[in-house]
Every structure is written in C-alpha cells, then in structure tokens.
C-alpha cells in the first residue's frame, strides 16, 4: 500500500499577490468573482502594497485618512489592478529607460604632445601601462603623460530593449517583513513564501515535528538562475570589474540550494532530508517528484517543496533577450502594428506572440502522507499522484522544444485514468499549459495536447496558462500552475487567456478549449489538473494533481467512517486557526517566520546508540536500525 502525498498547506508571493488561501488566484479571475470575494482580494492587496494599513477596525492611508473596507475598494481598486500582474518594469528594480553600462572609449591627443593629467599615487594601476610616463609632483601625487592612444571605460546609459516583467505588487518589499540585511532578493522571497505556506497549515510547526521522526521531514527547493543580484553571485562577479571587494556573504548566498537551505535554517529548524534539484523551467516539478516519491515509499512523512526566483535584472534580461526569447518593445510594436506597447498584454500564450515575459515569484507547498494528515486534522487541498520527467533525445538547439513532453503528458493522463477512470479525465480535467508565449511553444505544445487528446478520446479539453497573468518566473513556474489549480478546485473558475484576442491560426486547438474568458465549471466540479512544463535543455515534466473531492473519496475507501468522522472534527479546529492567519495576513500582518540564531542545537547533548540518535529539541529519535534491502543477495 502506497502513501498518498496530500497537499495540506501552500503559500507564496508573485505578481498577483499572496498565494495562500487562493488570493493570487482570485486576482487572476477577479472579473468573475462575487462582490464580497472581490472586496477581500482587493483589501489584501491594498495592505500588502502599503496603500493602507489596518488599525482599530479601519483602514488608514499614508495621509492618515480613515477608510471603510468599501471605501478602500472604491478609492484604490484601479491603482491596485494597475500595479499588479505583468506591467512595465518599475524603477525599484532598475530604470529600463536608462540602464547603466560602460562604454569603451579610445582617446588620443589632438597635438604632438601626449595626454597629460594628474593622479593620486595610490590610484596608479599595477603594472603601469607601457605608454605611461610618470613624474613625481610630491609624495602623494604624480603627473602622467600618455604617449599614443589610451582606452578606457566610462559610465553610460541605454534603453533596455525589454521593458516588461511580472513583478511583485507595487510597494510590497519582502525585506520589510523580517531582518533581511544582505539577503539577495530571491532569498528574502524564499523566507516569505515558505513562511506563508507554513502559516497556512493552521497547525503549529512544533506539533508537526513532534508527530514524526526528525528525518521524516524533507525540504525540496531550488532556483534556476541562482542569486544574481548585488548581494549574491552578481555582486561577487562584478566586484573586481567595478573596483570593489567581494563580501563574505555573496558567494554562499548565491548558491541555488539556498531556497532550501534558508528554509531549513531559518524557518523550520529542520535536521531532516534536504535537496535542491534543478531542471530549468521545470525545477519545481523535479523537486515535487522527489518529494512525492519519498512520501510514497515511506521515507518521508512531511515535505516542503518550492522555489524562489528573482530574475528581474538587466544581466538576465540581456541573456534571454539576446536569445530572442523575450518579448521586446520593438517586436510587440511590430506585432500590434502600433507605436505604443500595451505592457499588460506582453505575454500571450497560444496567440500571436513574440516571446516570454520574465517574472519573479516564490511558491512553497506542504505535503504530508495521508495517515499523518488525518492524525493531525490537516485541511487537504488536493494530492499529487504522479510527476513524469523525460528528456528530448538528440538535439540541435539546446533551447528548442523536443519530443520528451509527448512522453510526460501521455503518462500523466494515463496515470490519472488509472486512478479516476476515463469519464473523469474526459469530462472533469484541465491542462495548465507551460504556455510560454513564444511562437514555437504555441505550436509544439498545442500539438502535444492535441495528440494526447486524440489517443484518450478527449474533446473540448480546457487549457489555461498562468504566464498570461504572471509572466515566466523560471523555476517556480509550475508551482504557480499548482497554486492556480488549487484555486480552480475550490472555486471552479479556470482562468481564461485574456491577453489574446483569439487563438493563433497555427495552434492545434481542434480538441482543445483555449478560452479568452474565464471558464466557470462550478465549485467542486473539476477532478484533475495536469501541470505541464517545458524547460530549456530538454527538461520536460508533467504532474497529475487530484482535487480534494477525489482525495476525500479515496480516503473514505482507505479509512473507516469512525476514522473519517474523527478527522473531520480535528480539521475544524485547524481550519479556524488557518483562517485566523488569513485574516491577519489580509490586514497586512504576515507574522513572517524567521529564526536567526535561535534554538541552536547543542552538539554535546546529542545522544547516540547503535539503535537511535536523539537530537535536543526533537521529541522522537532517529532510527538507526536499518533493514538489509539486498537480503536475497547475501
């Protein structure tokens, strides 16, 4: 009997806001929400963006003016909507109209004399260039004459050809919510995202830890681009060229394992399993697969899985832009036959498009085995039954799509059919497309969906693409797909691809339903989500995610009525506590978990025998009694 990995907590932050309790999802479908839910979504964004603060049962703006909830919506809704999702890159990242760079200049004298100037002695280069002649002025200064040409670099500024990204809501700065000094932005986001996911549990983390052995907890997280800003690898690699010095933090904090390491060290205090798997844009699904396999086979009972990526940097945009992978200003103008760019519609999956839109995001999910979830009364939001990963075989271009995704997608649908049957797959499933908004993707990915739909006899298969709203955050892209899917399971609204006027003519959509408006399936009427990811290098992955309705049916087969009734009773208390956090977070209090230097383990107090290890602060020991898995060979 295999343990079922159930989703008991989720959280994070992206261009749509906070992921926990479906808030970011609701921003995506806000036009289709009832008025009450729309108001709550906008209030949460208003406090997050510091447009207002909640105090004494009212909302106060920066001018100390008091507002009711409805007045906040009336006064700020337009600004909130304009300052979320994909938009022109804001100056808090960098000025896209004046990006700093260095221009190479060759200078020569205009007469027979050389170029003369004075310089403090301590600023002389070492060794001196051959055509420099030095004369002492005094002990501290020298006169220099350069014979012939001299090359140097000078500060200059250029327009960035790509000016759009999926950014965290305007005014929301992760560093404001804990002591984030010298932390790269991606790691600030990792702390915030993991904390949000843990708070969403409605169960104290200590309760979870005390219910399992320390090594039955695992963290699976990474990012694709590492930390390339000033506080990470970016600052380290630039320091010599800028005449600066490398700090003691830039090298370690740049490592792409840090979205796991920071969670272990500062959020969970875990001594359990840790791993950081990278598979380009499919990195989340790679980590998710490792987690569910460990839960399936009993090695792990709790898993925290996620990614944090902050790639809105000139250097990264240069890299992807030079490849022709990003939607540039000129290409968007050419596409729309206009002189002005609608940045809100830069990402256009399955429509007439010209490249993807870079984005930042942090997303984490908490998984438990089904038995532990019932024992603790955890609220179950869904389950991940399978993740399939396949490469492309021989390639010409390493970044081009390939055949591996046919395998992953077909396996994922087949796995779902084996669990819930043909009728559920055909009538109550939908696809979360990779939908990167490139011309190649719209053709190749839609063809895969079409061919898979043919062999499984699926018609009018709903397809959505989160990147139309959020952009492409690279490693957390599939985590965002998962967050949206959990919202679909709860509310029944499949987000339409609203950034396109129509599906492009070369898309294989005969058996697909690629809607430009939200598709209302009704709450509880969607059974399965297929998360599809296509990463550079042939990193293809597809996950099969089961709705909470399907999971509850499965649990009722495994457990008795008495066990399910007791679980539901425990779950009510958990839901109350989780909802209390949601209310507080919506009012702007995220209560971010950050334990720096707290509850350090005294290694002298570790107790070891040949049967177990006891770690101070953990209720249960780590079992050392290993079984021989190769008994038949001995």
Please provide a written account of the structure:
This protein is an alpha+beta fold. It folds into three domains: 5-86 and 163-558, 3-Layer(aba) Sandwich (Peroxisomal Thiolase, Chain A, domain 1); 99-158; 603-633, no CATH class. 33% of the residues lie in helices and 21% in strands. It has 19 helices and 27 strands. The strands form seven sheets. Strands 1, 2, 13, 14, 15, 16, 17, 18, 19, 21, 23 and 24 form a twelve-stranded mixed beta sheet that branches. A three-stranded antiparallel beta sheet has the order 3-4-5. Helix 15 (439-455) links the parallel strand 18 and strand 19. It is globular, with a radius of gyration of 27 Å. The two termini are 27 Å apart. 48% of the residues are buried.
Ordered list of secondary-structure elements with their pairings:
Blueprint: E1 5-14, E2 17-18, H1 23-28, H2 35-48, E3 52-55, E4 58-61, E5 66-67, H3 69-82, E6 86-88, E7 99-107, E8 115-120, E9 132-136, E10 141-146, E11 150-158, E12 164-166, H4 185-200, H5 205-210, E13 217-222, H6 233-238, H7 250-254, H8 258-268, E14 273-275, H9 283-296, E15 302-309, H10 314-322, H11 329-336, E16 361-369, H12 370-376, E17 382-390, H13 404-420, H14 422-427, E18 429-432, H15 439-455, E19 461-464, H16 467-470, H17 477-491, E20 493-494, E21 512-514, E22 519-520, E23 528-535, E24 539-546, H18 548-558, H19 561-586, E25 607-608, E26 612-614, E27 622-623
Parallel strand pairs: 13-14, 13-15, 18-19, 18-23, 19-21
Antiparallel strand pairs: 1-2, 1-16, 1-17, 3-4, 4-5, 6-12, 7-11, 8-10, 9-10, 15-16, 17-24, 20-22, 23-24, 25-26, 26-27
């Amino acid at each position: 009997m295999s343990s079922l990995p159930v989703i008991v907590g989720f959280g994070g932050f992206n261009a749509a806001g906070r992921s926990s309790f479906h808030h970011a999802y609701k921003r995506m479908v806000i036009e289709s929400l009832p008025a009450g839910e729309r108001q709550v979504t906008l209030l949460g964004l208003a406090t997050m963006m510091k447009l207002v603060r909640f105090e004494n049962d009212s909302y106060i703006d920066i001018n100390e003016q008091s507002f009711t909830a409805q007045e906040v919506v009336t006064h700020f809704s337009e600004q909130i909507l304009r300052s979320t999702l994909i938009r022109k890159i804001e100056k808090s990242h960098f000025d896209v109209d004046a990006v700093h760079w260095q221009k190479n200049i060759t200078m020569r004298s205009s007469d027979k004399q050389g170029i003369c100037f004075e310089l403090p002695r301590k600023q002389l280069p070492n060794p001196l260039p051959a055509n420099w002649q030095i004369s002492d002025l005094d002990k501290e200064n020298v006169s220099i004459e350069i014979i012939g040409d001299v090359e140097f670099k000078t500060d200059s500024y250029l327009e960035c050809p790509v000016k759009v990204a999926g950014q965290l809501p305007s005014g929301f700065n992760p560093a404001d919510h804990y002591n984030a000094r010298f932390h790269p932005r991606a790691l600030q986001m990792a702390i915030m995202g993991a904390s949000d996911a843990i708070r969403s549990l409605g169960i104290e983390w200590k309760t979870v830890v005390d219910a399992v052995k320390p090594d039955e907890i695992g963290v699976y997280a990474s990012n694709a681009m590492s930390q390339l800003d000033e506080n990470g690898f970016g600052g380290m690699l630039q320091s010599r060229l800028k005449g600066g010095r490398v700090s003691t933090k830039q090298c370690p904090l740049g490592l792409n394992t840090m979205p796991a390491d920071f969670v272990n060290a500062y959020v969970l205090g875990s001594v359990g399993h840790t791993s950081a798997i990278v598979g380009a844009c499919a990195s989340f699904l790679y980590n998710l697969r490792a987690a569910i396999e460990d839960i399936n086979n009993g090695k792990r009972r709790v898993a925290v899985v996620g990614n944090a990526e902050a790639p809105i940097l000139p250097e990264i945009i240069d890299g992807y832009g030079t490849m022709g992978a990003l939607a540039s200003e000129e290409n968007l103008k050419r596409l729309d036959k206009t002189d002005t760019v609608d940045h809100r519609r830069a990402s256009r999956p399955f429509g007439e498009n010209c490249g993807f839109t870079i984005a930042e995001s942090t997303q984490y999910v908490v998984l438990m085995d089904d038995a532990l979830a019932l024992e603790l009364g955890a609220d179950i939001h869904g389950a991940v039954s399978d993740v399939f990963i396949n490469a492309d075989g021989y390639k010409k271009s390493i970044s081009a799509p390939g055949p591996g995704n046919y395998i992953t997608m077909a396996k994922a649908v087949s796995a779902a059919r084996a669990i819930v049957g043909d009728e559920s797959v055909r009538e109550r499933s939908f696809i979360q497309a990779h939908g990167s908004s490139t011309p190649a993707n719209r053709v190749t990915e839609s063809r895969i969906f079409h061919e898979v739909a043919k062999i499984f006899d699926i018609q009018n298969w709903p397809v959505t693409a989160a990147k139309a709203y959020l952009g492409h955050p690279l490693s957390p892209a599939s985590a965002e797909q998962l967050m949206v899917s959990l919202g679909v399971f709860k509310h029944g609204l499949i987000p339409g691809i609203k950034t396109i006027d129509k599906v492009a003519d070369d898309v294989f959509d005969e058996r697909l339903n690629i809607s430009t408006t939200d598709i209302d399936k009704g709450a509880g009427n969607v059974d399965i989500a297929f998360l599809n990811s296509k990463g550079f290098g042939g990193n293809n992955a597809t996950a099969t995610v089961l709705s909470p309705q399907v999971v509850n049916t499965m649990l009722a087969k495994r457990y008795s009525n008495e066990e399910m009734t007791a679980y539901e009773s425990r779950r009510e208390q958990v839901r109350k506590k989780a909802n209390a956090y949601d209310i507080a977070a919506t009012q702007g209090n995220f209560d971010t978990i950050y334990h720096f230097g707290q509850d350090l383990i005294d290694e002298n107090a570790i107790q070891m025998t040949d049967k177990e290890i006891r770690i101070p602060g953990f209720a249960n020991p780590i079992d050392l009694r290993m079984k021989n898995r190769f008994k038949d060979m001995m």
